[in-house]
Design a protein that fits this description.
154 residues; alpha/beta; four-stranded parallel β-sheet; two-stranded antiparallel ribbon; 5 helices; 6 strands; 39% helix; 17% strand
């Protein structure tokens, strides 16, 4: 029997059009469910009651939770140090190489058992600051007491 499966990408929802990276985990989940004959759609709060199963993926801890996700949503995201061997297996890569990439090249840091990237965190913080500055500037323009002008300055 075909089921209705919903996918929720918390990072894409948070960053909007700024998110340029496809969510590999959700793509894998989608492919597997489609092979099982299930229908896979993007999550919509309006249709939440109709889903047989919802998967939500969130990589960054600072991305807020979606309050409309059903209680039985399967949530995943952050890479844990303990999962590196499993990731290597899934990628058909050497486990030692995967560990070395994370630990030896200063590309990632391990904090509290989670694999993080300071560069990615800095870039995301900068992006959020720019977005907030633009939002404030737009609000200031909209709330300005000046009368709107046309192209001729009248």
């Amino acid at each position: 029997m075909s089921r209705l499966i919903a996918l929720h990408d918390a990072d894409a929802e948070h960053f909007g059009r700024l998110n340029k990276f496809p969510n590999y985990a959700l793509m894998k989940i989608s492919a597997w469910h489609k092979q099982q004959g299930d229908e896979v759609v993007w999550f919509s709060p309006i249709e939440a009651q109709f889903y047989d199963l919802v998967y939500s993926s969130k990589i960054f801890d600072f991305v807020p939770e979606n309050p409309y996700l059903p209680e039985n949503t399967i949530k995943g995201g952050t890479v844990k140090e303990a999962d590196l061997d499993s990731i290597a297996f899934e990628l058909r890569a050497d486990s030692d190489m995967c560990q070395a990439v994370v630990k030896n090249y200063d590309l990632f840091k391990i904090k509290g058992g989670k694999v993080t990237s300071d560069r990615v965190q800095r870039n995301l913080k900068k992006r959020a600051e720019i977005s907030e500055a633009r939002k404030s500037a737009a609000e200031a323009r909209w709330n300005s007491s000046e009368a709107p002008r046309n192209a001729s300055g009248e």
